[in-house]
Amino acid sequence: MNPEPFLQLDRVIHEKGRLAIMSALAASNELSFTELRGLLAMTDGNLTTHIRTLQEAGYVGVTKSFRDSRPLTTCTLTKAGRDAFAAYLGLLEQIVAQTKIL
Length: 102
Known about the structure:
By secondary structure, the chain is α+β, with helices and mostly antiparallel strands. It is built from six helices and three strands. It has a three-stranded antiparallel β-sheet with strand order 1-3-2. The chain is elongated and about 55 Å long.
């Protein structure tokens, strides 16, 4: 077995909470903080920390605005985030392909 794909996995994405956020955002154009929190059953603090890490890596864009005089935070994948997520999935496919039981 070739260990190289394992070594190339993006550690920012690989953590399960961040992987869940990236997966949810990849399936949507944008999601509000509240939608992500409900979908992923995360606490405010946990979700905030993971979003901040993804934002610092350039993978997630965060927009703060107001809707009906209430604050609204929305998240989207950046181009770099979509590219990184696609590369991550490609590596996972390689790992699965080389470890299939015959």
